[in-house]
Amino acid sequence: MPLHPLTYTVFGGLALAALGGWALGIRRLAADRARLAQAAVLALMIAGALAGLLRWMGQLSFTGGRLLYPAHAAWAIGLAGGLALLGWRFPRLDPALRAAATTTVVSAALLFTALALIEAYWPPAPSERAALPALTGGPIDFYAHPNDEGPTLRLLGMAQREPRFMGDWHAITLCWEILAETERPAAFSVKLAAHGAIDADRTSVFGMGRFNSILWRTGDIFCDRVNVPRADPDRPEAAPLAAGQVYDIIVVVLDAETLAVDWPAAAPDGTRLETPIIGQVVSPVAAIVFPDDLMQTQIIFPNFAELVGYRLGGISPGDGAAPAGTALTLDLGWRSTAATPDGWSQFIHLIGEETALVLADGDPLGGSYPTWAWSPGEQLIDRWTLPLPTDLPPGQYALRIGWYRRDTGERMPVMQSDALSPDGAADLHELLITTP
Question: For 286, which of 27, 100, 120, 137 is 20 to 30 Å away at the CA?
Answer without folding.
Answer: 137
